[in-house]
Design a protein that fits this description.
By secondary structure, this protein is mainly α. It is built from 6 helices and 2 strands; from the N terminus they run H-H-E-E-H-H-H-H. The protein has a two-stranded antiparallel ribbon with strand order 1-2. The longest helix is centred in the first third of the chain and has 24 residues. It is globular, with a radius of gyration of 17 Å. The termini are far apart.
Length: about 170
């Protein structure tokens, strides 16, 4: 059983990716407003996720996919799947992730490269959502690696502080 929600399923991970792109390309101009881009895109992702969760609670299974790579007659699909487990994780990632981004506004206030930090947070949320929604092991691997790269960026954010670098 499918619903209209499958048409909007791709927006759940793409909203934070959109926030990442805005903050990376226009962050220096946005300065402190970069945080609001990340907050808005993560909250929108959370709202769309709530609609997807409601569809799953109605007994629907949301799946959207397309052919990505072909090997002779075999096709590798790229897609997103929301089943009951993914629905629960969607709520956890989008809701808690949005709260973390909101908390970070005060925590990062006055820091150099403020907009870059929020770009990294948005990319991290995109990666986590891609991991939760993946339909195959290749996608899981790609998004898992993206989560690792984002963790590296966020952990190494204060590379110029000796105390942080030593830790």
């Amino acid at each position: 059983m499918t619903s209209n929600m499958t048409n909007y399923l791709f927006l759940i991970p793409l909203m934070p990716l959109f926030g990442f792109a805005i903050n990376i390309f226009f962050g220096k101009r946005l300065r402190e407003k970069a945080a609001y881009i990340s907050i808005a895109t993560s909250v929108l992702s959370c709202i769309i996720s709530c609609f997807a969760i409601a569809s799953v609670f109605k007994g629907e299974r949301l799946l959207v996919s397309f052919d990505w790579l072909s090997f002779n007659t075999t096709f590798l699909q790229f897609g997103f799947l929301v089943d009951p487990l993914a629905a629960m994780m969607l709520f956890v990632v989008t809701f808690i992730g949005s709260l973390i981004i909101i908390y970070s506004v005060g925590y990062m206030h006055g820091e150099a490269r403020y907009s870059r930090f929020f770009a990294y947070l948005s990319l991290f949320m995109f990666s986590m959502l891609g991991l939760v929604l993946s339909t195959n092991l290749i996608q899981i691997y790609i998004f898992w690696e993206l989560v690792g790269v984002c963790s590296y960026f966020l952990i190494g954010f204060w590379f110029e502080k000796d105390s942080a670098a030593n830790a």
